[in-house]
Amino acid sequence: MNDYLVKALAYEGYVRAFAIKSTETVSEAQRRHYTWPVATAALGRTMTAAAMMGAMQKGEEKLTVKVEGGGPLGLILVDSNAKGEVRGYVSNPHVHFDLNEHGKLDVRKGVGTTGSLTIVKDLGLRDFFTGQVPIVSGELGEDFTYYFATSEQVPSSVGVGVLVNPDNTVKAAGGFILQLMPGADDAVITEIENRLKQIPPVSKLIEKGLTPEEILDEVLGKGNVKVLDRMPVSFKCTCSKARFGDAIVSLGASEIQDMIEQDGQAEANCHFCGQKYVFTKEELEELKKDAK
Known about the structure:
By secondary structure, the chain is an alpha+beta fold. It is 36% helix and 29% strand. The protein has a 6-stranded mixed beta sheet with strand order 7-6-3-4-5-11, with helices on one face. A 5-stranded antiparallel beta sheet has the order 8-9-2-1-10, with helices on both faces. β3 (62-68) and β4 form a beta hairpin. α8 crosses α10 (281-291) and α9 runs antiparallel to α10 (281-291). The protein starts with a strand and ends with a helix.
């Protein structure tokens, strides 16, 4: 089954909910960047959360998630939009450790706990909206939860998970976001809190074959959820040779001439998807004309 997410309401509209199956999307990132398990889990959790946050946007709006926790993974950078498209990379993809004390991938150690989580939203206006909070956990689900509560003042619960096979491939990935709407009473809050304490990790639910709809039933209780929309999710990069060509033109004619004289060609690699673009001497000559 292809990846997709659902948007829903629960408890008579007092809870807004999202759930996602992102296994194939995270797998694509793992293949493109050849990430090791801890890096796969950290990047995959970030992409999963970012995809759901992208689904909160409208039209051509998009957002960028930056995780800079001070750990050996370095920067995790993810872009997403309102169409279910997401892309991302991690600075140091070859990071892995022994399992932590709970027998799970040590994402906290990889991410670090001394930096920040930054969300930059491009809403089509002159200025971007930027929200930033300190990393409070390094496990990322708790960090996104803290972001919503602190930066957007929306009480939320974010669950994201990635299971990795022994051969480094992705076994399962998915997540959910629950958000309390104004007016939610204490009884609703207490019931959700109790259910969250009892459910297995979200990656286990995906591994069992639960759909995003069934994940929300598990989290919020069957019969309480009203699905509003379903959206396909996929890894999609917006890079192109033309865009890199524009970037080369912006360097100026003398810089392009240096490339021609020193290497006779130029190579450009996209951080997000790993695609390599080669510009021949003849192509550089044309770009140099544009630069003038």
